[in-house]
Design brief:
Layout lengths: L1 E4 L2 E4 L14 H16 L2 H16 L16 E3 L2 E3 L2 H16 L3 E5 L2 E5 L8 E4 L2 E5 L2 E6 L9 H13 L4 E4 L1
Parallel strand pairs: 9-10
Antiparallel strand pairs: 1-2, 3-4, 5-8, 6-7, 8-9
Length: 174
């Protein structure tokens, strides 16, 4: 069942907060029976709220601490900047050293580029790279990717649009 809640389309599963229990052991069956009894005691409004709350957190990008991330990346914070992975954080440290040595200049993290401008009917489509810097007189934009994330369809389309619209910028996938 789909409903709108605070302008967000939410999928609603009318099963107790989406829990599935294996039916192998007596303990699991007992636990399932207990939950079903609690479910029947609670009002549907309360259950609906719990399910909505879980769905809204998922849509807003909040995750339970025990859930692994899709690509198993570990976020890192360096110099107050949050990086999506250890690999990206390590690359930032390498670029900071290159900037200190004078090899590159004007290092920026997470620059955004508009690849499709906003219209009356649609919002703008942006591409957010990992790094932008000058190497001599040349502008370089870098994106740190693993072999798996480099195949992401959305990323590939945005990268191709970016490269097509900015032929003068040296794009590098690290």
């Amino acid at each position: 069942m789909k409903i709108y809640f605070e302008n967000m389309l939410c999928d609603i599963d009318i099963w107790f907060i989406g829990h599935n229990f294996p039916e192998n052991s007596k303990e699991d069956r007992y636990q399932q029976e207990e939950i079903e009894e609690i479910y029947q005691q609670l009002s549907k409004k309360c259950i609906l709220y719990l399910i909505l709350h879980d769905e809204i957190e998922r849509k807003l990008g909040k995750r339970r601490s025990n859930m692994p991330k899709k690509y198993r990346n570990v976020e890192m914070v360096i110099d107050g900047i949050t990086f999506a992975s250890k690999k990206e954080a390590n690359r930032y440290q390498e670029l900071k050293l290159l900037e200190a040595d004078g090899v590159i200049s004007n290092l920026k993290t997470h620059p955004k580029f508009v690849i499709v401008p906003k219209t009356d009917k649609r919002r703008a489509v942006t591409y957010s790279a990992d790094f932008e810097y000058f190497q001599g007189k040349k502008v370089v934009v870098e994106d740190v990717k693993s072999p798996i994330t480099a195949k992401n369809r959305t990323y590939v389309v945005k990268r191709n649009l970016f490269e097509f619209q900015n032929p003068d910028i040296d794009f590098r996938e690290v």
